[in-house]
Fold:
Amino acid sequence: MIVWINGTHGAGKTTAAALVRRLLPNSRVFDAEKVGETLMDISPGLPETGNFQHWPPWRPLVVETARHVLDYTGGTLVMPMTVLVEEYWREIGAGLDRYGIPVRHFVLHADQETLRGRIAGDTVLGPDSPFRLAHLEPYAQAARTWLHAEAEVVDTTRLTPAETALRIAEAVKD
Structure:
């Protein structure tokens, strides 16, 4: 099984994933961003797109990597990864479905004011990350048009990371 934790950049996906992993027996965290980083390391570089998710190889490589890891280890993969393009989500989902891999798709949501406050106070990437701020509107658009209908939404506005992880883990265990 895959527990996919989606949401905008700065929503707390990576933190939640690490905590969810501790709550789900035989689970591992697989950050699909590492697949994108591998593609970014190709020299000379792939055509410039501004986002590795736009490279056609990224999506099937995420599917294949997840499939091979699950074939090798069994259990659950917890995948913290923002996917805001519906076509990309459908491609990944169809690829996983072809292998019979069940996916529980969660979206960490908070209102814009809360997200801006979290981004402003980020101690890892630094305050007011232009990258993270630039994804707030695309996230809001995806949330309005398709994303929230395709996932289990966890409103993290008033939740701690531990409470968020517990909600996800309890939903998966049910």
Q: What stands out?
A: The radius of gyration is 16 Å.
